[in-house]
Amino acid sequence: NFQLDGFGLPFTNGAQWGDLDTAIYDHIDVLRGANGLLTGTGLPSATINFALKKPTAAFQASGAVTIGSWNKKRAEGDVSGALNADGSVRGRLVAAVEDRDSYLDHYGKRINTLYGALDIDLARGTTLSLSWIEQQSKADSPLWGALPMHYADGSSTDYDVSTSTSADWAWWNNTDRRLTAELTHALGEGWQLKSAVSHRSQRTDSELLYVFGSPVSGTSTGLYAYPALFEFLYQQDMASLQLTGPFSLA
């Protein structure tokens, strides 16, 4: 029930690994309800559409620097404009880097995001769009699973908000790359034909520690450890054809 520029995105492994940095998106639409009947890929709950930033004919540039709690440091930049005299070729480049710790013990994360887009007017009403997305997230000592909720005697546990069962050696790295080519043709009277092909590669590697059980209050008795090492590579190729436009009924 996720879409990228209106095209459905079934996840090969059923999940999204790593962060989705919103610096590369112009806006995000959330439609609640069973629109899967109309969109081709959807669920009865809702559909979330991520609308990417598009190249502009007029030159524009922006940047931002953020400093926050828990050693958060972030910088991002966005530049767009025409690449030839008549504006028939337009480009856009967005980049963001972030490094932060957390209120959770041991935990920290680094995020790198790069997005490039190119729009080429092939003829009147026909545009070829090419885009490349690369997102990397590297987590140090991530908390895998939740803290135990009850002691062995049935009473509720009570931890400090910063408590984490993660080990110092734990880590989780994700790299998500997506290359997309889209051809759009205006048919007139508000109708539009769009076709797209995309290739996505997701790499997720980790060494994690899961702690579970019902501890005896004041001791570590009753807790169990489950360390694990994962190496996954998912690749996905998609092709889509979409016809949209307004019409009157009854």
Blueprint of the fold:
Layout: E1 2-4, E2 7-8, E3 25-32, H1 36-39, E4 46-52, E5 60-68, E6 72-82, E7 89-101, E8 108-123, E9 126-140, E10 171-188, E11 191-213, E12 223-244
Parallel strand pairs: 1-4
Antiparallel strand pairs: 1-2, 3-4, 5-6, 6-7, 7-8, 8-9, 9-10, 10-11, 11-12
Task: Characterize the structure shown.
With 250 residues, the chain is mostly beta strands. Helices cover 2% and strands 59% of the residues. It has one helix spanning 36-39, and strands at 2-4, 7-8, 25-32, 46-52, 60-68, 72-82, 89-101, 108-123, 126-140, 171-188, 191-213, 223-244. Strands 5-6-7-8-9-10-11-12 form an 8-stranded antiparallel beta sheet, with no helix packed on it. The chain has a 4-stranded mixed beta sheet with strand order 2-1-4-3, with no helix packed on it. Strand 5 and strand 6 form a beta hairpin. The longest helix is centred in the first third of the chain and has 4 residues, at 36-39. The chain is elongated.
Condensed summary:
By secondary structure, the chain is an all-beta fold. Helix content is about 0%, strand content about 60%.
From the structure above, extract its key features.
single chain; 250 residues; 1 helix
Give the DSSP E fraction (strand runs of 2 or more residues): over 45%
Structural class assignment: mainly beta
Query: Which regions contain 5 or more consecutive residues with pLDDT less than 50?
Result: none
Mean pLDDT: 91
Largest sheet: 8 strands, antiparallel
Report Rg.
Answer: 23 Å
Sketch the topology as an H/E string, one letter per element: EEEHEEEEEEEEE
* Global morphology: elongated
CA(first)-CA(last) distance? 30 Å
Number of helices: 1
Tell me the strand order in the biggest sheet: 5-6-7-8-9-10-11-12
Helix content: under 10%
E-strand count: 12
